[in-house]
Amino acid sequence: MVFLAYLVYAQWGDDEAQSHWLLALAGEMLVFAGAYQFMRWKRACADMCRSPLAFVYIYDSRRGVRNALRAGTICGAYCLGCCWATMTVLVVVGLTSLAWMTILSMLFFVEKNWKHGSAVAKVAGIGLMALGVAVLAYPPLLARISDLA
What we know:
The protein has helices at residues 2-11, 14-17, 20-36, 40-50, 52-58, 65-92, 98-113, 117-137, 140-147. α3 (20-36) packs across α6, α4 packs across α6 and α6 crosses α7. It has one domain (22-147). It is mainly alpha-helical.
């Protein structure tokens, strides 16, 4: 779905892509992605991603290809549930540069592998919400953060 939205936006010229409503959408998406870091669904998915051994015990994939495929699909769904909002920021906000993708990848890595990962997610959520409010208040900021990387 996000890729389809990107294809639509990619067809527009620079003037249309920088319209006020698209900048407002980007700011709102940043606020939403930040707020998503505090939602119960996000925490439940992140908890499963943080303890892969528990996942293996719950969804035993040693009993054949079918069970392994089922376990992999469920694990992928948990990862998607954990990170989809932040990944959407890359496309909707226009931060699809290698540097911003690396920054978010490191955020995901630290969040999922460090014992204080939930605190990292909350700090990232506050940062995303603050950035979203700043973009809503001052739309040219979006172009500046996009050009940083």
